[in-house]
TrEMBL record:
This is Ubiquitin-like protein. Residues 195-244 form the Ubiquitin-like domain. It comes from the Eukaryota. CDD domains: Ubl_ubiquitin_like (cd17039).
Length: 268
C-alpha cells in the first residue's frame, strides 16, 4: 500500500491549495499498535493512531463498542444502511481515527458523512462517554455547528471531499452512503395517496402525521408547528442526522419515517 502519509499531503495540496499541515507525533508511540483487525486495516490504523496509543486502546475497547452499539441512533443506521452494529461502530471508529491523524480537533479539515454525523451526535449527547473518548484521545473533538451561509456550505463540501479521499486512501473503499430506493419501489410510492410519519421532539414525545408522499417541507413544518403551538421558523426537522431545508418538495416521504424535531436556538 502506498504510504498514506504522502497521500494525505497530496490530497491536501489538491483540495486546500498547497497549504502546509503538520501532524504531531508522539516520540514514545509504538511502531505498531496491536489491534484485533485484518492486516490491511491494521496497517491503516498503525498510521492513523501512531500518535495516540491510548486513543487506539479506547477505540478498540469494550466501552467504545458497547456504548455505540446500544445507542438508538445505531438502530437507525443499521436499518437505513442495511449493516450490522459492528459495521456501524467501525465506520465511526474510522472517522475518529482520521480526525486524530489530521489533528483536526477544531473541525476545520474533515467533515463527516451523514452516517458518521448521526453517530457523532449520539456520542456527544452521552456526555460521560464523549468525555472519556476525548480524554483517551488526548484532545478536544469539536463538532462544528451548522451554518447555512454559502461560504460554510462550500467549506463543508470541501472538508467532506477531503475526508472521503483520506478514507479511501487508508481503507481502500468508499464510506457508507445511503442508496436511494430502486426505481420500481419509487414507482409504488408514487401510487400511494398518503403515508404516516412520526415526529419526535427532544423531550421524547412523539406525534403522528398523515401526509401525501410528495408533501412539501413547508407543509410539514407548518403542521408540526401548529401541533406544538409554535411557529414554523422556530423548529428544525432532521432525518438520520441530516437537517431538512426549505425546498418545493423533498419527496417521497416514506411510510413509518421517523423525523426528529429540534427547536431553533436564536443567537443574541
Amino acid at each position: 500500500m502506498a504510504d498514506p502519509k504522502n497521500l494525505w499531503y497530496d490530497i491536501l495540496d489538491i483540495i486546500f491549495g498547497c497549504r502546509t499541515y503538520h501532524r504531531s507525533t508522539s516520540q514514545n508511540a509504538a511502531d505498531s499498535i496491536c489491534l484485533d483487525v485484518a492486516p490491511r486495516r491494521q496497517e491503516a490504523y498503525d498510521h492513523l493512531l501512531s500518535s495516540s496509543p491510548n486513543g487506539a486502546d479506547f477505540l478498540f475497547g469494550e466501552r467504545f463498542t458497547k456504548c455505540l452499539s446500544s445507542m438508538n441512533e445505531m438502530n437507525q443506521i443499521t436499518t437505513l444502511y442495511k449493516i450490522t452494529p459492528a459495521r456501524g461502530v467501525e465506520e465511526f471508529r474510522r472517522f475518529i481515527s482520521l480526525k486524530i491523524f489530521t489533528s483536526d480537533s477544531d473541525a476545520r479539515i474533515l467533515s463527516p458523512t451523514s452516517a458518521m454525523d448521526t453517530l457523532w451526535h449520539a456520542a456527544i449527547l452521552d456526555t460521560y462517554f464523549y468525555a472519556e473518548l476525548q480524554t483517551a484521545l488526548g484532545c478536544l473533538l469539536h463538532h462544528r455547528p451548522f451554518k447555512s451561509s454559502k461560504e460554510e456550505i462550500d467549506a463543508r463540501a470541501t472538508r467532506l471531499r477531503a475526508m472521503k479521499s483520506l478514507y479511501k486512501a487508508f481503507f481502500l473503499e468508499e464510506p457508507l452512503e445511503y442508496e436511494e430506493p430502486k426505481a420500481e419501489l419509487a414507482s409504488v410510492k408514487l401510487k400511494q395517496t398518503t403515508v404516516s410519519i412520526k415526529v419526535v421532539s427532544l423531550n421524547g414525545t412523539s406525534e403522528n402525521f398523515t401526509i401525501q408522499p410528495w408533501a412539501s417541507l413547508e407543509f410539514l413544518k407548518k403542521a408540526v408547528a401548529t401541533r406544538l403551538g409554535t411557529e414554523p421558523d422556530r423548529i428544525r426537522l432532521f432525518y438520520i442526522g441530516r437537517q431538512f431545508f426549505s425546498s418545493p418538495n423533498l419527496g417521497p416521504w416514506e411510510e413509518g419515517q421517523l423525523i426528529h424535531c429540534v427547536p431553533e436556538i436564536r443567537g443574541c
